[in-house]
Structure formats: structure tokens, C-alpha cells
């Protein structure tokens, strides 16, 4: 699957789980969906961002000098739930013809 495609573009849940097999791959996908090739600081809207080395995908703004991750400024920001579980839940809710009005995400 191409990074430019949406999560709902997967044919099945097993394909989604196989594609997003690591948290790092999820973070890369989220960064591409959010910024494309040009990250922007959510604090000061500056476009000169440096990627920091390390296990987690983190960035630092050249203007305000704040560190940030791909989760900052999104619904995932304060969540302890891994992006893999979030992506699975999003796929389940958005990929079916019938909506899940009482969908419970706690069991995922």
C-alpha cells in the first residue's frame, strides 16, 4: 500500500495489521498523512523542522525550539493507546457499509 492512501483503502483487517506491524511504521504513515514531505510546527507554524534521532519519531522546531512528535495537535496526543490500535479502530469504523453506532473501542 502506498503511504498516500487512506486507512480505509485496505481490503481487510489482516492486510491493515500486517502493513502496520510496528509503531514506527504507524508514526511514519501519520507524519506523511499530516504533513506530506514538509513537517510544520504545530506551536508556531514554522516549516523548518529537524528530525531527532532515537527510537521514537520526534522532531524539533528550528524557530521555537520545541520538541514535538507526530501525535502533537491530533486526537492521539494524550493517548496511551498505540497507533496500531488506533488505526485498527479507525479502519473498523470507517470501512464498513453499516455504521457502528455503539462501537466500543475499549475491547480492541
Description of the structure:
This protein is an alpha+beta fold and 108 residues long. It has one domain. Helices cover 30% and strands 10% of the residues. The protein contains three helices and three strands. A three-stranded antiparallel beta sheet has the order 1-2-3, with no helix packed on it. The protein is elongated, with a radius of gyration of 15 Å. The mean pLDDT is 83.
Radius of gyration: 15 Å
Q: Which sequence of SSEs, written as H and E, runs from N to C?
A: HHEEEH
Helix content: 25-40%
Overall pLDDT score:
83
Strand content: 5-15%
Total domains, how many?
1
* Unreliable residue runs: none
User: Count of helical segments?
Assistant: 3
User: Overall 3D geometry?
Assistant: elongated
Largest sheet geometry? 3 strands, antiparallel
Quickly give the structural class.
alpha+beta
Sequence of strands across the biggest β-sheet: 1-2-3
The end-to-end span amounts to 23 Å
| Total beta-strand segments | 3
Question: Which terms summarize this structure?
Answer:
108 residues; alpha+beta; 30% helix; 3-stranded antiparallel β-sheet
Amino acid at each position: 500500500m502506498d503511504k498516500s492512501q487512506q486507512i480505509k483503502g485496505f481490503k481487510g483487517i489482516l492486510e491493515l495489521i500486517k502493513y502496520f506491524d510496528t509503531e514506527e511504521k504507524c508514526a511514519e504513515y501519520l507524519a506523511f498523512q499530516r504533513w506530506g514531505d514538509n513537517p510544520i510546527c504545530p506551536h508556531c507554524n514554522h516549516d523548518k523542522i529537524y528530525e531527532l534521532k532515537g527510537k521514537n519519531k520526534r522532531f524539533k522546531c528550528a524557530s521555537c525550539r520545541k520538541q514535538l512528535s507526530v501525535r502533537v495537535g491530533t486526537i492521539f496526543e494524550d493517548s496511551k493507546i498505540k497507533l496500531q490500535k488506533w488505526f485498527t479502530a479507525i479502519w473498523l469504523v470507517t470501512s464498513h457499509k453499516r455504521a457502528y453506532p455503539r462501537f466500543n473501542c475499549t475491547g480492541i
